[in-house]
Design brief:
The chain contains eleven helices and eleven strands. The protein has about 350 residues and is α/β, with parallel strands linked by helices. It binds guanosine-5'-triphosphate and magnesium ion.
Length: about 350
């Protein structure tokens, strides 16, 4: 990694110097604007071993680039670039994604980084919140300790509060106490947790549920890298028609989360719920999952308490999470819809 410092009168001039001397792959690590009008300073970095691809080895065109007919994206960086690149670096967003999102943001006609980012997310990512009354059972799956059972309890509580009848089933007869933990929450809702020890039990339990209320299914933690655990999960997923929803904790390494999520996506995950947003500050995985795997963002959990902290993602809330100062706003405030 080679670092260089640039000083210029304006941000645009400094960015031009960076691009001229370090090339388009340079990443802005930090920007500083003198409060006393002494110009701006940029710290830029580039991987030393980055060599241009040999002729004929260029990757095919990225389908997520703007389609033909959309306005051309200005090549020259502008003032908002520094802010976005700095935010992406903080969140550990993979380099290629940082650069692509920043470039796309230049086509948005506003100087405000937040609005730019929200507009880019709107175009690039899919948002699919879990419905209050799903038509097929929601099957929560994910790695151990991801927050599946708390999410099941939150979905159940939300539905009961809205006046719906619910059925909650757990396939987690694997872990000691797995049934009791969720059972305690479901009892508080005056309901009985249904246990499914085998895929046949699950299919029968789903067939017995009432047709006019949501059905929520919890599953044991699955290590995505363990073939036996994957096969066990697959047998339950195939027992009857379900909507498999991945549950992933925020604050983990973006690449690690994307690799694990890609395995769950192959097993059928249709979208993901992110948990523990309150207990993390770096949200790079919230971008790598929709970008690398194309998984839509559903909802976010930001409290261990079942009656609190469950909100749908939107382009604006996701943008707020990326540009926020974590020390200032409580996390739930980022999910209000006004700008
Ligand atoms: N702070 C915070 N804690 C959470 C959140 N969601 C879950 N937790 C906590 O994370 C821990 C694991 O949550 P569970 O719901 O038991 O996770 P799980 O995926 O069901 O775990 P396994 O069934 O063991 O795989 C518990 O201590 C929860 O209280 C959240 O949004 N915020
Ligand atoms: Mg659990």
């Amino acid at each position: 990694m080679r670092l260089r410092y640039y000083h210029a009168t304006t941000m645009a001039e400094a960015m031009q110097q960076v691009r001229r001397e370090m090339g388009a792959d340079a990443v802005i690590i930090a920007t500083h604007k003198s409060r006393r009008g002494r110009g701006v300073e940029i710290t830029a970095a580039i991987d030393e071993d980055r060599t241009p691809p040999a002729a004929g080895t260029l990757a095919p065109a990225d389908p997520r680039q703007p389609a033909l007919g959309t306005p051309p994206i200005p090549e020259l960086p502008d003032a908002a670039d520094g802010c976005l690149l700095q935010a992406f670096a903080y969140h550990g967003v993979p380099t290629a994604l940082r650069q692509r999102l920043t470039k796309l943001s230049r086509a948005v006609e506003t100087e405000a980084p937040l609005e730019r980012l929200a507009a880019v997310f709107q175009r690039q990512f899919r948002f699919a919140p879990l419905p209050l009354q799903p038509t097929i059972p929601i099957f929560l799956l994910g790695p151990p300790g991801a927050g599946k059972s708390i999410t099941a309890a939150k979905l159940a509580t939300r539905a009961v509060v809205a006046g719906h009848k619910i059925s909650v089933i757990t396939c987690d007869t694997v872990k000691a106490g797995g049934v009791d933990q969720l059972g305690a929450f479901i009892t508080l809702l005056d309901q009985t947790l249904i246990t499914a020890e085998t895929p046949e039990d699950l299919s029968e339990a789903v067939a017995r549920t009432s047709a006019d209320g949501p059905v929520i299914i919890d599953s044991p933690g699955t290590n995505p890298y363990d073939a036996v655990e994957r096969q066990d999960l697959e047998r339950f997923l195939n027992a009857c028609p379900v909507d498999p929803v991945l549950v992933m904790p925020a604050g983990t390494d973006s690449a690690e989360a994307a690799e694990a999520a890609s395995i769950f996506a192959k097993l059928g995950a249709s979208r993901f719920v992110a948990t523990r947003l309150d207990a993390a500050r770096r949200y790079g995985s919230l971008l790598s999952l929709p970008d690398e795997i194309g998984l839509p963002l559903a909802d976010a959990s930001m409290s261990p308490f079942v009656t609190r902290g469950f909100h749908s993602f939107s382009p604006l809330s996701l943008a707020r999470l990326i540009v926020r100062d974590p020390a200032r706003n409580p996390i739930e405030a980022e999910f209000r819809e006004d700008i």
